[in-house]
Structures are given as C-alpha cells and as structure tokens.
C-alpha cells in the first residue's frame, strides 16, 4: 500500500523502511520544542538505543491489532528516495462511525519545507477517498503551532480542548475535526494497492 503525491510517498512501514528511519530516532531527530507528543511514547526515552527498541516494539504491537474498535496503519514518509518520518492513520470504531485520527513525526532536518502539510493531505486522501471515512480528527498541544496551522489550512474546524501530559507535566490540547464535506480533495494524490489494504481492515 502506497500513497503518492508530487512531493512525497507514504509507504507501508516495512521493517526495512523502519531500519532506514532508526538513525533519525536514535539521533534525536524526532525531538522538537515545545514538546509535541503526549504520554506515553517511546520517543521521549533518553537512552538512544533503548529509544529505538521501544519505538520498534510499539509499532510491531500496533501492527498486530486489527479490530473494529481500533486499528492503525503505519507509513514511512519518503522524500526523494529518503525515509524522513512517519505518518499513521488510526481507525476509531470505524464500522460504527467512520472516524479516523492521525499521528506523525518528521525528522528535524526536514521541517519548514511544507512536508508536514503534504503528509497530512496524503493520509486524508487515503482516509476519505480510499477507505470511505466520514470524519477525521486531530489534536495538538496549543503551543504546537505547526500542527495546529496544518489542521487549520486543511479545513479542520476547532472541536474543543482537552488535557494531556507530556513527560508527566499537564498541558492543554487543541482538538480538531474535519468532515468529509469539508475535506479538500486533490486530483494529484494517488493510491496504490488500496484493495489489498481494504481487504484486511474491518471497515464495515
């Protein structure tokens, strides 16, 4: 399963692709200020090798859980042939509500080039066009200006706020909601092998 745009590809996160990303995880290129991730997450582990091990184990566990109430598709972001980050799509009670949310990170040396926006646009195309989602959610800490700006630019609407912790400290989250009617469809995003993906997901 792949999603391609003029700027990048989302490729199913095989172990070979994860191995290409491991150096970015080990070297701390997943880090950002202010801290972007809520607890618990392996990317906050201070020991570099243990961080990679925990990160891989979390992905392997997630691959094995494909249930109607929760499933997760892991994609590696590839730009100019190089693995530079991850973009995940998460189904939430999809057969009942058609809802998804997303999670992503981008290597620090790739930020500020519009890749984050393009990654999200690509995963939304998969959700709405490929899987028939009715609604996509997102959340970001209020001081994560980049993620909040991407949500706003892609047509999400504010959907309240909530609290979460990062490294054990409370912080406020913005919640966002994008309906199928407000989704900004693009004609230059392509889905590859989508039927093979649909076959194994509990979509209805």
From TrEMBL:
The keyword Transferase applies. GO terms for cellular component: cytoplasm. The keyword Nucleotide-binding does not apply. InterPro entries: Acyl_CoA_acyltransferase, GNAT_dom, Ribosomal_N-acetyltransferase. Gene3D superfamilies: 3.40.630.30. One of its GO terms (molecular function) is protein-N-terminal-alanine acetyltransferase activity. Residues 23-179 form the N-acetyltransferase domain. Keywords: Transferase. It holds the Pfam family Acetyltransf_3. This is RimJ/RimL family protein N-acetyltransferase. It comes from Kribbella kalugense. The lineage of its organism: Bacteria, Bacillati, Actinomycetota, Actinomycetes, Propionibacteriales.
């Amino acid at each position: 399963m792949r999603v391609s745009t003029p700027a990048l590809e989302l490729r199913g996160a095989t172990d070979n692709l994860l191995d290409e990303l491991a150096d970015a995880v080990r070297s701390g290129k997943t880090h950002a200020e202010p801290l972007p991730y809520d607890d618990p997450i392996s990317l906050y582990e201070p020991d570099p090798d243990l961080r990679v091990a925990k990160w891989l184990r979390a992905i392997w566990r997630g691959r094995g859980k494909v249930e109607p109430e929760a499933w997760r598709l892991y994609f590696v972001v590839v730009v100019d042939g190089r693995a530079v980050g991850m973009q995940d799509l998460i189904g939430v009670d999809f057969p009942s509500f058609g809802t998804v949310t997303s999670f992503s990170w981008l290597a620090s040396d790739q930020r500020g080039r519009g890749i984050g926006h393009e990654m999200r646009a690509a995963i939304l195309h998969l959700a709405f066009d490929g899987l028939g989602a009715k609604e996509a959610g997102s959340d970001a800490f209020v001081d994560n200006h980049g993620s909040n700006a991407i949500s706003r630019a892609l047509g999400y609407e504010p959907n309240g706020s909530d609290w979460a912790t990062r490294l054990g400290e409370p912080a406020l989250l913005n919640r966002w909601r994008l309906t199928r009617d407000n989704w900004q469809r693009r004609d230059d995003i392509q889905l590859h092998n989508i039927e093979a993906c649909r076959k194994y997901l509990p979509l209805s």
